[in-house]
Write a structure and sequence with these properties.
The complex is a heterodimer of chains A (about 375) and B (about 90). Chain A has about 375 residues and is α/β, with parallel strands linked by helices. Chain A has eleven helices and eleven strands. In chain A, strands 1-7-6-5-4-2-3 form a seven-stranded mixed sheet, with helices on both faces. In chain A, strand 4, helix 6 and strand 5 form a beta-alpha-beta unit. The longest helix of chain A is centred in the last third of the chain and has 38 residues. With about 90 residues, chain B is an alpha+beta fold. Chain B is about 30% helix and about 25% strand. Chain B contains two helices and four strands. Chains A and B meet through helix 2 of A and helix 1 and strand 2 of B.
Chain lengths: ~375, ~90
């Protein structure tokens, strides 16, 4: 029983696996580098995948979609490419280390980091963010789309309005958003939306997505070969997406991501409805069994993540028992999000996280509830 | 080298119109737009006569060049340069 989708989704859809294999067998050339048919086939396939990802996220121009190695690399690209000494950034207290650690590094370099506390359910209040950005010139507001601990979905469109009213950019870590939540980057109005390819987007590991709104142009993280440029072409291009894609890309991974995007375009709404039903069952069942569920109450929409604590049982013992005795995969600890656990009151204990996803079934929820009820007796 | 091959004598050179673009992404997008317009197009290495270096150019028949440019304009893909080459 796999209940660790928030770490990485599994199993991967057959279409994704087939696309990855095709990228290593049917295709072989380096996309965008040579003009022979093998390379052109790779380039066409990467282009198609980029267009599919853009459509899934509501990005009108696929050139605004850069494919990177993952969400962490994408967050670093945006934060370190946009913020510099003397800048001020407002960030939620729910953030994962993929935001918190780059911001800590930037604070050492002279960026002022203002952390806005979320409430006990993990909700970020736009009014609190408005107060924070009003207290000093702010370059950016940073917030995750959904909490990887509590599952709380943040009001990104409202936060974007707050940011833009103050002249700040809106940067979103969508690692647990895209896929679990229908994303339209234009409707959200964000300047940057970064997401993982291998979580709810159902792609393979090793790919992540950075959407950069037109006109929002952080510095590139790397310079290098892009397949363009003449004899005087030793200056890295500013054209998109090449600017953010120096070096050969992960072609099999990108093709897998493209296949996943097409699948989610067809099945995303149904998958999300099923996830919502299952996570509510899981939430209510865990409370009934005596566990304390972090985050919003059961009747508030969340991504399919439920983290729990128990007054007598440590999360690590529970996770190990679930794995060893019941064959149920979950994750214990702080989930690379110490800020979030401090906010949610579980900083000292950590929590047991159960996360659902594509392919999760009632019998998976039943198995977890039965096992955890037995362990709590 | 005689220029002849096992397949027969070399084909005569023909005139083609060549488009270049700012990025490989635009080259691929342009190839799709031109093909979708029902026109013949072939990706070629960027010719030395058009600046050379890295990059993918698109080669079209002169008769279809205007239609191809129209398709690119409608599709929002900008040309970097337009030239002509003699090719097989």
């Amino acid at each position: 029983v796999y209940l660790d989708h928030a770490a990485t989704s599994w199993p991967k859809p057959t279409q994704v696996i087939d696309a990855v294999v095709s990228g290593m067998t049917d295709l072989g050339g380096n996309p965008g580098r040579s003009a022979h048919e093998l390379a052109m086939d790779s380039a066409r396939a990467v282009h198609a995948a980029r267009c599919d990802v853009a459509r899934l996220l509501g990005a009108p121009d696929p050139r605004d979609i850069a494919i990177v190695s993952g969400c962490t690399e994408g967050c670093n690209l945006v934060l370190k490419g946009f913020l510099g000494p003397g800048d001020r950034v407002v960030v939620s207290s729910l953030e994962h280390n993929s935001i918190a650690r780059p911001l800590n590094a930037l604070s050492v370099a002279g960026v002022e980091v203002i952390v806005v506390e979320a409430d006990a359910t993990g909700a970020v209040d736009p009014a609190a963010v408005a107060a924070a950005v009003a207290s000093g010139p702010t370059r950016a507001v940073v917030c995750m789309h959904a909490s990887n601990v509590a599952g709380t979905i943040q009001p990104i469109a409202d936060l974007t309005r707050v940011a833009h009213d103050a002249g700040a950019a809106m940067i979103v870590d969508g690692a647990q958003g895209a896929g679990h939540v229908a994303v339209d980057v234009v409707a959200l109005g964000v300047d940057a939306y970064v997401c993982s390819g291998h979580k709810a987007l159902l792609g393979p590991e090793g790919v992540g997505v950075v959407y950069l709104a037109p006109g929002f142009a952080p510095r590139e993280a790397s310079q290098g070969g892009t397949g363009d440029g003449g004899i005087n072409g030793d200056v890295h291009p500013t054209t998109r997406p090449q600017r953010y894609e120096a070096g050969t890309r992960n072609v099999p991974g990108i093709l897998g991501l493209g296949a996943a995007a097409r699948l989610l375009a067809e099945q995303g709404d149904a998958t999300r409805a099923e996830e919502a039903r299952l996570v509510r069952r899981l939430h209510e069942g865990l409370e009934y069994a005596g566990y304390t569920v972090l985050g919003p109450p059961a009747d508030v929409p969340r991504v399919p993540i439920v983290s729990v604590t128990h007054p007598r049982l440590d999360a690590d013992r529970l996770a190990n028992a679930l794995d060893e005795r019941y064959g149920i995969a979950t994750r214990a600890g702080l989930h690379c999000a110490p800020w979030a656990h401090r906010t949610l009151g579980s900083g000292a204990t950590g929590a047991l996280r159960l996360s659902l996803g594509w392919g999760s079934r009632d019998c998976d929820v039943d198995a977890a509830l039965d096992a955890l009820a037995e362990l709590a007796r | 080298m005689s220029g002849a091959t096992a397949a027969g004598p070399p084909r005569p050179l023909r005139r083609f119109v060549v488009f270049t673009f700012d990025s490989a992404h635009d080259s691929i997008a342009a190839e799709r737009l031109i093909a979708d317009a029902g026109l013949s197009v072939r990706a070629i290495p960027k010719p030395r006569s058009l600046g050379g270096g890295c990059g993918i150019a698109l080669r079209v028949d002169p008769a279809g060049a205007a239609g191809a440019e129209d398709a690119l304009s409608r599709g929002g893909v900008a040309l970097s340069s337009r030239g002509e080459i003699q090719d097989y």
